Amino acid sequence: MNGSQRPMTKRAFLAAAGAACAAGCLGSAEPEDDESGADENGAETEPERDPEPDPGPEPPEATLFIDGDPREEFWDRGESWQDCEHLDDWELLAGSLEASTERAYRGSRSAHLTSAGDGEVRVRIPLSGYDLTETSFSLAMYIESPGNHYSPSFDVNAPDCGRKLHFRTRHKIDEPGWIRYDLGVSHTSSLASADEAYATISWAGDDVDWYLDDLRAVPVEREPKLFVQFDDSLRSTYDTAFPIMEEYDVPATVYTITGRVGNSRSLTLAQMEEMQEAGWEFASHTHTHRRTGELSLDEQRAELEESKRWLLDHGFERATSMIAYPFGSFTTDTMDIAADYYDFGTHGQRGSMNRTISSPLSVNRHPGDNPERAMALIDLLLDDRIPTDTLVLYYHDVVEDHDVWIDPEGFERTMAYIDEVGADCLLTSELRNQQYE
């Protein structure tokens, strides 16, 4: 079935109907009643017309550069829970813990944790004064030996929820530096205590050397939203995923490798235009898809700038302020450069998230390639007891018989499940826009 034969979806129909309605409101060329008249001398007079309504301010035009640094606007979101100036209520369970003045994200001290030969570091911090069905968390982390995917654990014994909540993130940068993370619920388990609320922060490994600072309790909204993304702008996004998602009226955001558009395995410009017409959007995945954090600063800037310029030049303005870092590779310098062009950045992490984002250039999302895992996260999203209001599922290829990527049958099952449970799906630009309203 070619593009012209695809049935119009509800989203596309509403867009077209809205345009038709707007045209109707402006009047037709042949009014039903002739309201023209004549003055007392018989001369034709113009009928009185109601004043035209004020259309309001036009949306700002997308530009190559943006003003300000979005991280500075959001880093105070939520309520300070642990400022790490004093660690008196932190209970050390394994490894070592000290207040450090050597590194601090804000204030004068941070919590310095090491495994110290114990094979892990683990601390417990009491939690009180929060409704844990409506509270998530964010924190700043600094790791002395980056370069791999790290998986610290942040577990909350939450009697309010009747469950233990397992928050997860993956810390992946290519040089040491402070990064702020919004934690997301990955899964739940049975309560360890029905009476006490506390957080356990841990990290297994013989060489853990880790700093934490500015732990914040973040409010969670109650209306769950789901977002679907694709990385790499591969041809299967159009050939396989697009028709399935059109059937279930689910829109998506495609993070586009602009230097590959039209290649044999990549989307063509015509396909991108058709998808945009159907309600999809296109954001940056850099120009050539190299590991951004491993490039020189000049090369990083060229990758980020050229990709956005291409999108603007080819009529894909709606999502040009958003980027996904290839391979999850970035540094603090990368984010400094990205802040000149983008105000919303993402990479591969784990678990759900919440819409009160405090780190807009390192936003959490979860790979959707395991259908059962994706559907379990959708169930958590829709569970009123669990403090999460947002889930971002991202995909790459949708192809048969691949060890990593999802196959068409599993992808369709996931989209059908989204439709069955009535999850509200939006474009990622709408998530971004909510942060700046």
Q: Could you describe the largest sheet, including whether it forms a barrel?
A: 6 strands, antiparallel
Kindly report the CATH topology of the largest domain: TIM Barrel
In total, the number of strands is 22
Mean pLDDT: 86
In percent, how much strand structure appears in the residues? 15-25%
Structural class designation: alpha/beta
Query: What would you report as the Rg, rounded to the nearest angstrom?
Result: 25 Å
Number of individual domains: 2
Structural features, described:
By secondary structure, this protein is of the alpha/beta class. It is globular and about 60 Å long. It has 2 domains: 73-219, Galactose-binding lectin (Jelly Rolls, Sandwich), CATH 2.60.120.430; 223-436, Glycoside hydrolase/deacetylase (TIM Barrel), CATH 3.20.20.370. Helix 5 (297-313) runs parallel beside helix 6 and helix 7 packs parallel to helix 8 (408-421). The relative contact order is 0.15. The strands form 5 sheets. Strands 3, 5, 6, 8, 11 and 14 form a 6-stranded antiparallel beta sheet that branches. Strands 4-7-13-9-10-12 form a 6-stranded antiparallel beta sheet. Strands 15, 16, 17, 20, 21 and 22 form a 6-stranded parallel beta sheet that branches. The chain contains 9 helices and 22 strands. Helix 6 (332-338) links the parallel strand 18 (322-324) and strand 19.
